[in-house]
């Protein structure tokens, strides 16, 4: 993961791209709240796209997509570890709307290492990695309006995006294997 990973050519279309990574059929991942946020986002950014990477059955969300008239949702499916960083590089905002039982925000760190701004639920596992308004925007769980407002705010405010991206990079570096290994070695040396 990192800014050196090339985005996919389709990322140059100019349409804002929001990325979700995870097992989207699991209720705890909160995907349905991000999906319900899309019409609100598309009021401000009609061509915004939601890219969904991970395992799940997209048919389960067909009724929600029709009911809320959501467009531009692309269910990618499971991807290889080699191609996953390219999806991060191809997005404008990463969103992790989980509602509970996330012990650690590895997907947040992947996005931060990829120099992407993050919107995530303010749950203990994510709040242990990210600090709201410092390196991510943390929102109330189960709140499509809060998710939409945070994403629209990031898409509209280049300065905020830049600040979060720079701070996020430092957070990701703190959790990188070389950094963690050095801290462990330092404990043994003392």
Q: Brief description of this entry?
A:
The chain is an alpha/beta fold and 190 residues long. 43% of the residues lie in helices and 14% in strands. It has helices at residues 31-44, 62-67, 84-89, 106-113, 124-127, 144-156, 158-174, 177-189, and strands at residues 17-21, 49-53, 73-77, 93-96, 118-121, 137-139.
Number-wise, the strands total 6
Q: What is the residue-mean pLDDT, rounded to a whole number?
A: 92
The coarse silhouette is globular
**What sequence of helices (H) and strands (E) makes up the elements?**
EHEHEHEHEHEHHH
Largest sheet, in brief, is: 6 strands, parallel
Q: What's the end-to-end separation, in Å?
A: 32 Å
* Overall SS class: alpha/beta
Radius of gyration: 16 Å
The stretches of 5 or more residues where confidence is low (pLDDT under 50) are none
Share of helix, binned: 40-55%
If strands are numbered along the chain, what order do they take across the biggest sheet? 3-2-1-4-5-6
How much of the sequence lies in strands comes to: 5-15%
Given the structure, what is the number of helices?
A: 8
Q: What do you see in this structure?
A:
The radius of gyration is 16 Å and the shape is globular. It has a 6-stranded parallel β-sheet, with helices on both faces. Helices cover 43% and strands 14% of the residues. It is built from 8 helices and 6 strands; from the N terminus they run E-H-E-H-E-H-E-H-E-H-E-H-H-H. It has 190 residues and is α/β, with parallel strands linked by helices. The model has no long low-confidence stretch (mean pLDDT 92).
């Amino acid at each position: 993961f990192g800014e050196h990973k090339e985005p996919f050519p389709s990322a140059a279309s100019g349409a804002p791209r929001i990325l979700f990574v995870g097992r989207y059929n699991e209720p705890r991942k909160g995907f349905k709240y991000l999906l319900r946020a899309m019409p609100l986002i598309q009021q401000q950014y009609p061509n915004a796209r939601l890219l969904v990477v991970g395992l799940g059955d997209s048919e389960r969300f067909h009724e929600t997509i029709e009911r809320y008239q959501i467009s531009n949702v692309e269910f990618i499916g499971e991807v290889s570890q080699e191609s996953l960083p390219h999806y991060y590089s191809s997005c404008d905002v990463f969103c992790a709307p989980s509602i509970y039982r996330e012990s650690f925000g590895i997907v947040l760190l992947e996005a931060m290492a990829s120099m992407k701004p993050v919107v995530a639920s303010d749950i203990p596992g994510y709040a242990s990695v990210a600090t709201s308004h410092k390196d991510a925007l943390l929102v109330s769980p189960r709140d499509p309006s809060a998710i939409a407002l945070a994403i629209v705010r990031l898409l509209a405010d280049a300065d905020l995006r830049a600040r979060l991206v720079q701070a996020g990079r430092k957070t990701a570096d703190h959790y990188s294997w070389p950094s963690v290994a050095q801290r462990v070695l330092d404990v043994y040396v003392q």
